[in-house]
Amino acid sequence: AQSVTQLGSHVSVSEGALVLLRCNYSSSVPPYLFWYVQYPNQGLQLLLKYTSAATLVKGINGFEAEFKKSETSFHLTKPSAHMSDAAEYFCAVTASGGYQKVTFGTGTKLQVIP
Amino acid sequence: DGGITQSPKYLFRKEGQNVTLSCEQNLNHDAMYWYRQDPGQGLRLIYYSQIVNDFQKGDIAEGYSVSREKKESFPLTVTSAQKNPTAFYLCASSIAGTNGNTIYFGEGSWLTVV
């Protein structure tokens, strides 16, 4: 069984401030982890993914995430928020080995205040 | 451009009616998925298919049906047995299975019961 928990359904930051969106996972086998972004009324777009190659993963739009096995975390960060970052962000986990279902978190809505 | 096309974008259903949501992909992906998205609940898997003429139930398959007669197409029928069908529906696809492979999403379809 696998699961993800996203702490905070809503996060507000000022433009130019650090963005930190939290994701903790649970998996009985080595996981693959993803962050997706969803703009209003649209589908999800991949920001970045961890597939065990490197613990610090860089994605699009200046986002990055660090896999920390000891903390079972995969938090998403961006040094300086931009107005265009306002969206909903989803963390997702799947397990290695054959076909495995992808489990999504409940999402975090990011508000960027000018 | 390659991608996933969902239609219609907005659909209204009367009580007791079946409706079908279309999903077509030209990414040459073997696996396709249908997710339901409700506010605050993240994405929930309805059905998935790893190969033509084969599909499996996801977590919330009751009241839904699918077919996979062609690799490119994975239509979802919302039947009258689905008691609360108002939601945002997302079709997705990936290279066979989800073993670390990225899931690509369509733009989604809104279904409203009137």
Residue runs with pLDDT of under 50 for 5 or more positions of chain B: none
The helix-strand sequence of chain B is EEEEEEEEEEE
Low-confidence stretches of chain A: none
Structural class of chain B: mainly beta
Q: Treating each run of at least 4 consecutive H or I residues as one helix, how many helices of chain B?
A: 0
Oligomeric state of the chains in view: heterodimer
Beta strands of chain A, count: 11
Q: Quick one: how many beta strands of chain B?
A: 11
Radius of gyration of chain B: 13 Å
Q: Report the biggest beta sheet of chain B as strand number plus sense, adding barrel if it closes.
A: 7 strands, mixed
- How many angstroms does the end-to-end distance of chain A come to? 41 Å
What fraction of residues of chain B sit in β-strands?
over 45%
Envelope shape of chain B: globular
Q: Helical content of chain B, roughly? A: under 10%
- How would the global form of chain A be characterised? globular
Compact overview of the structure:
The complex is a heterodimer of chains A (114) and B (114). By secondary structure, chain A is mainly beta. Helices cover 0% and strands 58% of the residues of chain A.
